[in-house]
Amino acid sequence: MLHPEMSIYAEKHEIFNLVQSMVTNLLVDKPEDPLQYLIDYLKRDSLEVPRVMLLGPQLLGKEPLPDSCVNTCAPVHITAGSILTEDTELARRAQQHREQQQEVPSELWIRLIQQRLSKTDCAQQGWVLEGIPQNREEALLLQEHGIAPDHVVMLEAPDSVLIHRSLGKRVDPITGDVYHATFRWPRDDEVGRRLVQPEVLSEERAAARLLRYQRGAHGICRTYGKCLAAVNANQPHDDVFAQVLTSVLHRPRCVAPHTPRVLLLGPPASGKSLLAERIAQKYNIVNVSCGQLLKAAAVDRAEAGELIKPYLESREPVPDSMVLQILTQRLSRLDCTTRGWVLHGFPRNMEQAKKLQESKFIPTRVFFLEMMDAVAVERIVLRTVDPVTGERYHSLYKPAPSPEVQARLQQNPLDSEDLVLARLNEYWDRTPDLQALYPDAVYINAEQDPHTVFESLESRLVGQLPKRLSDRVQF
Question: Does rRNA-binding appear among the keywords (predicted)?
Fold first, then answer.
């Protein structure tokens, strides 16, 4: 039986993803010496490289976009033309078909692509296939040969826009680079003077080419539906590139076992306790309230309880060392390590957060609940409790049911406006350091009704966080 903390270690170092990637590559490449293959695989500089297909009509003018992707993400840009210029026997056979104005057989074409993608630069840097595949048949053949992209980006635009862009195309006869008279004119005047306009397609030929593309695109969408992202190309080039890059950086769905470890941070009255209760109930994880843990420990006759009890009775802060001891004991229990936990009430400052990390209890999700001070004051100052029944009331949200109950309601001395404002000031003074410590934290507007806040939080809880730019791309 594996140690309960093995899952935490495996998640931190993405062991499951590593093993999955190794097995996938092993089955695709089928090496004669599997053990040596895996050793060489682990020695690579980068195990996670971009594998992207960039598709769209030929009239769209995709040429500038992959260059930007290459400059940003450092993958190898591959087009049909670049594959055919390879000095290989397969490329020469394909050129013969082209010279005889024949279609290159699909099997030969797929073997050419496979040969190019198997080279060291593609294995180490990743690749961007532009305009490949062109139909469902090619897509299925690529899959049969073990070529599967992480992301497929489909550029789309109205037919009228595509035809207009084709009229503005200009080609550098020396380098083969493609420019546009309106959208992408070269900065070098010498290059601009030598640009030539390619053969202009008639409206009938352009319509026929678009129809052929659309028929093939429909089958491609069916093949790559789970990793397909459509991007509107009828907008400025920088905006198109930003959307494509965002799509490429988004992490594919991971099937690795996941133990949720959720941390809720927020000012007083932001609803941390209620949200933690709902999360724990719905996802069967452990609700860990630091305040409740300390109260339970004080009731216990153990040594730790006897030490904590005087602090709680005098309303003084419990030393961090005692708090951390109680907290780490709870988070180390089997239910927390196997089911996960949602923690609130700790940490309250940078020192406590660092000690929590040093104890190896690192959350997988951090949420900051945000609200105005005026709302927090309203929620706290106007709340009261019935000393007879213990029921809580609020002057605005839950008034007393009768004058008799209203007459005996009492306010907690700690809920006075001055003390609440002092607690709020203390929270906001310490929050910037915590925000810097958790750069991937999600910020939730806690001024909404509890159901809306929970839905907003839940939508960020179940999905996997995207890769940070520094983790995936190199500038």
Answer: no
Number of independent structural domains in the chain = 2
Q: If pLDDT is split at 50, 70 and 90, which confidence band does 472 have?
A: very low
Beta bridge partners, 127, equal: 51, 76
Q: How many Å apart are CA 411 and CA 395, to the nearest integer? A: 11
Q: Where are the alpha helices (DSSP H) in 195-301?
A: 203-223, 237-249, 272-283, 290-299
Instruction: Give the CA radius of gyration of the chain.
Output: 30
Strand duo 178-180 + 151-156: pairing: unpaired
* Rounded CA separation 273/453 (Å): 13
Confidence of residue 469 (pLDDT cuts 50, 70, 90): very low
Q: Are both 265 and 226 inside the same structural domain? A: no
Name, in order, each residue with C-beta under 8 angstroms of 420's C-beta and a sequence gap of 6 or more: 268, 376, 377, 380, 381
CA distances from 323 to 296, 317, 336, 366 (A): 12, 10, 17, 20
| 313 in any annotated domain | no
Q: Which long-range contacts (CB under 8 A, 24 or more apart) does 333-339 make?
A: 334/4, 335/286, 336/286, 336/288, 337/4, 337/5, 337/7, 337/8, 337/259, 338/4, 338/7, 338/259, 339/259, 339/284, 339/285, 339/286
Helices of type H across 43-178: 64-73, 80-84, 89-99, 106-117, 120-125, 136-144, 159-167
* Residue with tokens 């976009």, as numbered in its chain: 65
Which tokens belong to 19?
């093993």
Neighbours of 109 (CB within 10 A): 23
**Which one-letter DSSP state was computed for residue 402?**
S
Q: How far is CA 412 from the centre of its chain?
A: 43
Percent of the chain with pLDDT over 90: 21
Q: Are residues 73 and 142 in the same domain?
A: yes
Domain range for 57 is: 50-249
Q: Sheet containing 127-130: give its strands across.
A: 76-78, 127-130, 51-55, 151-156, 228-232
AA identity, residue 14: E
Segment 246-255, tens digit of pLDDT: 877 776 666 6
In whole angstroms, what is the distance from residue 64 CA to residue 233 CA? 12
Residue 377 binned pLDDT confidence (cut-offs 50, 70, 90) = very high
Q: Which residues of 259-288 are buried (b: 16+ CB within 10 A; e: fewer)?
A: bbbbbbbbbbbbbbeebbebbbeeeebbbb
- H helices, E strands: number in the chain: 24, 14
Match 């006075």 to its residue by tokens: 416
Residues 225 and 269 in one domain: no
Does residue 385 belong to any structural domain of this protein? yes
Q: What tokens appear for 167 in the block? A: 């009229």
Is 62 in contact with 155 (CB distance < 8 Å)? yes
